[in-house]
Amino acid sequence: MHPRGESRRTALWVGGVAATVAAVGAGVWIVRDRRARLRAPEGPAPQEGPTPIERTSPKAQGFSAPVAVVWCGPVSAAQSNGAELPGVRTVHRPCTGDGSPSCGQIAESWRGPDGRRLPALRKALGLPEAGRIFLAGFSAGGHLIWRILQDPRDRDEVAGVYLADGTYTTEWKDERARVAAPMAPYVDFGRFVMGDPSRLFIATASAAPNKNHPTGAETLTAIADALSLPSAPLTSGLPPARRAWGAGANLRFFDYGNTFSHAQQVTALAQKVWPILVAPHFETVRA
Asked: pTM for the whole thing?
């Protein structure tokens, strides 16, 4: 055969093989693409930046909204305005760390023969005898709240806790290294919340000096360490914290250092946190 004819036949054969390989490859790609589409969730690709909060509705767990929000500590209704749950009654129990009686002494006066404190709180504040209570504390108000959380029966009736610079203690684990001792009732409540997505535990803290005692931020760090909480990404809509920890959407701690003063933790920061982390947690349920 003429060399030119031979070359033409060879070229046709090679072209046919290439076309077959391309067709097979395209078929394999289509099959893989279809399988990938079946595996991949629908929706837009993940975006960089603050991580959105994934929530588990308390309603899905069979629970109703809290019957009341109780703000404890040196905080008035005007100061905590905006840090509320829509449709839920808010009451205040003013107290201070050095008052007569102090926040801690008030909590001790509520302790009954059985060791419980929450029933006396309900009675003193005119709250229903049944239904979960949401406890919010500013400054020394945290001393009242941790005493209520000591009893598992009371803890079971607490829908959630919000602390606005309320993690103060006089105890050090290592004073020279400025390592505070964790507050055991808050560690216990943190573990409780980690096992129950219907509950909520949110805390912010500052670096405001507390005489020779740990700052609220140092104690919050100790609580986070005791719970082995990992660092959490930025929360969309909130001011950047010096450090943040989290375990799901229902357990979040924020160290704001000197960005927000001690007083601003309740008069300014709480109003930013509640609409993003607190109210949405209960927005699908009503008492």
From this structure: 0.79
